[in-house]
Amino acid sequence: MLIGEAGSVRPFTLRRSAARVILLNSDGHTLLLQASDPVDASKGHWWEIPGGGIDPQESSAEAAMRELHEETGITDAEIGPCVWTQHCEFTFAGIHFDQDEYLHVAWCDVAHEYRPAALESLEALAFKGHRWWPLRDLLASEERVLPFRLREFLPALVAGDLPDPPVDITHTGGW
Fold it and tell me: Which residues form the domain of 157?
């Protein structure tokens, strides 16, 4: 925490680039991880695509593959192009994030089990499990998802329509 004007406390901001993965299996189902904020139970839970920060000298595609392996244990996915981008700001575990995200589509043959390979301690506390969502179930669900506009843009990806250049899916509202 940093001390701001008039002694107010403001959170630390982590500015970074991140890579995320929209993973589709051969049935067109999408892998989402169930998560919650380990220090703020009032946020409830949500479903999100795997991903995280891009390391120095790492491409977004390399980061997407590494994050997918760390968060799910999946190593045999074919990482495709960056199809979406977004800028987002959020607070997680008391840290304010300000990040540019590169979202890659990826494919695998089967609906793998959830076997994280290298979760950071906060991720281990945050992730509650996984689900392979059929498109129709995800579209009909009222569960909160990240990215916010996943339901809007996912049908085109499942149909094989990959945008070039990537589409900016930045969401400016709250939950």
Answer: 2-168
